[in-house]
Design a protein that fits this description.
The complex is a heterotetramer, with two copies of chain A and two copies of chain B. Helix content of chain A is 42%, strand content 9%. The chains are: A alpha/beta, B alpha/beta. Bound molecules: thiamine diphosphate (2 copies) and magnesium ion (2 copies). One thiamine diphosphate sits at the interface of chains D and B.
């Protein structure tokens, strides 16, 4: 049996370039990445607080996985490429052009939640695990048919790789040489189910062989490693060489979502070990060592991000409550008469 | 006007749309070189190429799921699921994904795709090939459900379906694929959704059906005619949208109604028809809306089809009972 | 007698069966150390071990499909699908496989398994978590469909379900999981399938419901009482088997019927109830069987739940209209 | 990317043992295999004729694939192990204890079709592609829990490997270390869809890596190779070491089933090449070279098999036609009252 593929790593724990590695991002780009990662962590904290206060709905924090999300999305071009989310990729949505206020509206349970502005090349978040992957394969296939070199970046989790949809999508993408990058965030958990109970395979990246395209494993807490692997995959896809599967090994610091109770199942020792590999801290050290970051700058950035976040949260809170009719909106382009009648009467025929 | 069978009418509609609109593409199992297991797409790959008429891997959820993605990219996918029974393998991509695509994106995206699927019993098919599961799709809002019963309707409704901006499940009765020929215009025409077709008129009782059961009702009506019972046969054509007015009109005229379908009785779409008619036209009814359906049993093996499916005799008996009441 | 919530009653039934019958095993997502996302299986893995209470890979079709194989090996699997909406991912393993297992093998094999699934709206869950798709399983014969509405019933019906030699879909209303406590016997007892429960009696109108809608109807009945309208509330408990006699009895007594459910109107199980009542008791009815249901729209986002789901006001209005007719 | 695994082959085209190979079956066992293969081909011809005459239902011939089916089933013990069929494995059903008359009854469309005699450890044939594989995984998992060392042999086709069920079943089997052998008959086609359009992977056996168990590729027209690979996999499974995936490369000589028209899509040159690798001829030569087979023996065997076949076909034809009520049988152990009423009245309520 083939052993697990070597895990690509670029940065050491202390934020130094590993021997023989060169950064695939310049300092300004890494700084952009760090800002997204910081925003993400601020957002997690805010969303959790607001959920606890009953003002926001269920939230799935990115905490601990920021490098895996951001490293990948920095490798695609929001002006050209498509992003296909699962749900745990908040900073990628921002990078791809989704307004923070729209995301905040989503969390208030407001029906405007899913509206992605025209021109933002992103599909709605997907609650049904792995269901977005066949969409991503079809979208990438369609983009290939159109020419133009656009690429799809599709995210999912380690749990998602057990679903039939993961398989069917990967196989189709391989068969169609579709320009798609499947980015698996292996965060160690699917709710309470550890990666070890999800599959006996030593690495999810090995799956790619069975679909006829490359599988790559990266240190998912290493922004530069994730970026490098994704950039390589994106270049391949743009060149018409088809999909790549990337397994980014990372760790979920917090609960699965705000309804979860990890105390029932998670191992504090394992968590403490993971926290020592913090993806943000590593980038902070890297930039600091290069003279491109310092506490003052961080304080300024945090202040700016917090203000942005405040504004978005407040805007969402000020949204007029949806009208009762809005549950009839956007179902059909040409709604059946019966639905129009239900809307008009707000009552089944019996109640008219 | 050319004479066409139902399957030829389907093929004709597909060809016209492939010619008219470069965004249209077909995808499914064995639809290319073979031309589909019923030859519905015969010759289309040769005419339009393997990029527009695509033989897919054996994975129904991927066929439907990829269609959503293709639609986002700007294509108009017409997916074939080899038999309606195998939409079950794609069920999670149909109702929860296709049916909610517009709602989830708050109108940013639509899913102007068609899922074609042959189905229905009476031709001794293997397991699952005959399953009439249309009612399940009516319980998943966001999808239109179209059930043609004649060559003319098949073509006009399929052209409408491909042009409709909403997702459409288009169920083709395989028993009727080659049963009759009918005059079908050579060019383009569409039949609007939600308008039932009055197949024949009669004052005593209304037989409501869709798809292959319409043919059954026509035979039953002919027999009832011989007994002096004049039956209206109403072909619903589409279950979503449902022609509630048409149902009420026919029920009001005859006062007696029998609904006929190939699916099992319990929670079949006949229940919706009966419930709707009695809700909307209760005081015009002389007696209950009756249902003739398959039993609450899975589709049986070939040797038992005849005692499982609704028969002319059962429709006639129900109509007689209705008229007596 | 101990007081239990509905979710505690479910847990109690599971524990009793795991103790009684070594063939019983639980499998599902996160049911082990976490004890399930609603804690329905809390403590059971600790008591019975990880071989009998099994955390599964994230693959619903495998959970159901493996249950068939486990049943062949002699086990009695009780599978949890995390939310009923995700049975769609396993649909092809439920109706066409579980539901036909006995028929396909001509009685050689049975599928004495239970699929448990929480569902239902009103608790601001994410997409799919609220979907009430019970009618779709009624259209797939071979499966029994059980919909408890109270702690007492949940325990008795679940014990019955596990012991029943046929496959059972057991839908648990998550909105009621912790809403009330009720006296529930500590030991074993079973409630037979197919017997509706008369929740309260009244001569003016019958409100028919199942699962969480029963609670809604109880509130509506209380309000109607204040207006001088005496309502019977009938809890169907099981959709398959259906208590046709119980329906006819109540309809005959009151002459007016309103069916209430959380699923969309069209082709919902309310249609079957209405169709059946008017078929079997037409001349006892004073007017049409009315339906109060969700709209023919996908379940909306949290902020719109209240205007999507049936409300007490809508049930009361329908009952009033029925009584006036 | 990993290249396709080496293809295990034991017999040369002329039926000689390849260098370094030893037969895993003795001559008597190979003869048993050859008889099953001959019976299978007689059955294909007969079933096709009867279907053409309108007396039998749809048939999917095994022709060309006999070594893949038989080599595998000879490696399991019908008295202990379970067989999980798709539908194109006729001789395996016979070997596992299914009476020929029962199979004949199946083809007459008689409702007794699926009845597998008590004690025959075989699941009913499965028309829904790949749907049997999660059953096989669950059954094997259950057998492991019971101890006793029983193993499951599950068949499917190359097309089946694209279905989500294939993936979910393999992954579960790996996770549970379930004693199951997944035998993929790669016969080049899924109806009209060639293997090349099914997946971009160079070998379906590579899929196993992604599930954490071995994948093996064999010459599926080589009875001894298929047997050897399966026997190894069975031994592994019995020893508690979990599943194996075997890809047996073979070729479908004939139509997909009796409703199919391969003239529309199949390549006659490819077919002719495949026919030159005939699995039966190879075994015939092997045994002949060892003095264990000759034309007289073959004639006698054929005569006996034909008589057996005649008897089974005639027995099926003489079955009393099913009663109209039989479509109500064997649905539930405890049928709902409504179904009983439908049965009693043979009419919906309306028609009573
Ligand atoms: C089809 C489906 N099944 C079950 C669920 C319930 N569920 C929500 S999140 C989750 C775990 C997902 O794990 P993973 O894919 O690893 O993503 P992560 O949450 O770790 O980012 C589950 C089982 C679901 N949403 N969809
Ligand atoms: C789920 C499902 N989809 C489609 C079909 C229709 N169908 C029957 S056989 C077949 C091809 C199967 O190919 P493969 O798995 O390679 O097996 P083979 O027939 O070659 O033995 C298809 C698509 C089916 N029976 N089940
Ligand atoms: Mg995860
Ligand atoms: Mg094949």
């Amino acid at each position: 049996m083939t052993a697990s593929p070597r895990r690509l790593a670029v940065l050491s724990m202390t934020g130094r370039l590993r021997r023989g590695q060169r950064p695939s991002l310049d300092d300004a780009q890494v700084r952009e990445g760090l800002e997204l990662m910081l925003l993400s962590r601020l957002f997690d904290a805010r969303a959790t607080t607001l959920q606890r206060l009953g003002r926001w709905g269920v939230h799935s924090p990115v905490e601990g996985q920021e490098a895996a999300v951001v490293g990948a999305c920095l490798a695609v071009d929001p002006g050209r490429d498509w992003l296909v989310p699962q749900y745990r990729e908040f900073p990628a949505y921002i990078h791809h052009g989704m307004p923070l206020a729209g995301i905040a509206a989503f969390f208030t349970g407001h029906p405007a939640q899913g509206r992605i502005p025209d021109g933002v090349r992103m599909l709605p978040i997907q609650v049904a695990i792995a269901a977005q992957l066949p969409h991503a394969a079809g979208l990438a296939w369609g983009l290939r048919r159109q020419g133009g070199g656009a690429v799809v970046l599709a995210y999912c989790g380690d749990g998602a790789t057990s679903e039939g949809d993961f398989h069917e999508a990967c196989n189709l993408a391989g068969r169609m040489q579709a320009p798609v990058v499947f980015l698996v965030q292996n965060n160690g958990w699917a709710i309470s189910t550890p990666r070890s109970l999800q599959s006996a395979t030593p690495s999810l990246a090995l799956r790619a062989l069975g679909y006829g395209f490359p599988g790559v494993r990266v240190d998912g807490n290493d922004l530069l490693a994730v970026h490098q692997a994704t950039a390589t995959a994106v270049a391949r896809a743009r060149a018409g060489e088809g999909p790549t599967l990337i397994e980014a090994d990372t760790y979920r610091y917090s609960f699965h979502n705000t309804t979860d109770n990890p105390a029932a199942y998670a191992d504090p020792v394992e968590l403490a070990a993971a926290r020592r590999q913090d993806p943000i801290e590593r980038v902070r050290r890297y930039l600091t060592q290069r003279g491109a970051w310092d506490p003052a700058r961080e304080a300024a950035v945090r202040e700016r991000l917090t203000a942005t976040l405040d504004a978005a949260v407040n805007a969402a809170a000020r949204l007029p409550p949806p009208g009762p009719d809005e549950c009839f909106d956007d179902i059909y382009a040409r709604p059946p008469a019966r639905l129009l009648r239900q809307r008009a009467g707000h009552g089944a025929p019996s109640e008219a | 006007m050319p004479q066409m069978t139902l399957v030829e009418a389907v093929r004709d509609a597909l060809r016209l749309e492939l010619r008219r609109d470069p965004r249209v593409m077909l995808l499914g199992l064995d639809i290319g070189r073979l031309g589909g297991v019923f030859r519905a797409t015969d010759g289309l790959q040769a005419e339009f190429g393997a990029e527009r008429v695509v033989d897919m891997p054996l994975a129904e959820a991927a066929i439907v799921g990829a269609s959503i993605g293709l639609a986002v990219a700007g294509f108009v996918p017409v997916a074939e699921i080899q038999f309606l029974g195998f939409t079950h393998q794609a069920f999670h991509q149909i109702g929860p994904q296709v049916g909610r695509w517009r709602q989830r994106s708050r109108g940013r995206f639509s899913a102007p795709l068609v899922i074609r699927a042959p189905f229905g019993g009476g031709i001794r098919s293997p397991e699952f090939h005959s399953d009439a599961i249309e009612a399940q799709f009516v319980q998943t809002p966001g999808i239109k459900v179209v059930m043609p019963a004649s060559p003319y309707d098949a073509k006009g409704l399929l052209l409408e379906a491909i042009r409709d901006p909403d997702p459409v499940l288009f169920c083709e009765p395989d028993r009727l694929y080659r049963l009759h020929r009918q005059e079908v215009p050579a060019g383009e025409y569409t039949i609007p959704f939600g308008q039932a077709r009055t197949v024949r008129e009669g004052d005593d009782v209304t037989l409501v059906a869709w798809s292959a059961a319409v043919e059954l009702c026509e035979r039953a009506a002919a027999q009832l005619d011989g007994e002096g019972i004049a039956a209206t046969v109403l072909d619903l054509r589409t279950l979503v949208p449902l022609d509630v007015e048409g149902l009420v009109r026919a029920a009001t005229r005859t006062g007696r109604v029998v609904v006929v379908h190939e699916a099992p009785l319990s929670a079949g779409f006949g229940a919706e028809v009966a419930a709707t008619i009695q809700e909307e036209a209760f005081f015009a009814l002389d007696g209950p809306v009756r249902r003739v359906a398959a039993w609450d049993a899975p589709y049986p093996s070939a040797a038992l089809e005849a005692s499982y499916l609704p028969t002319v005799a059962r429709v006639v008996a129900a109509a007689r009972a209705a008229v007596r009441s």
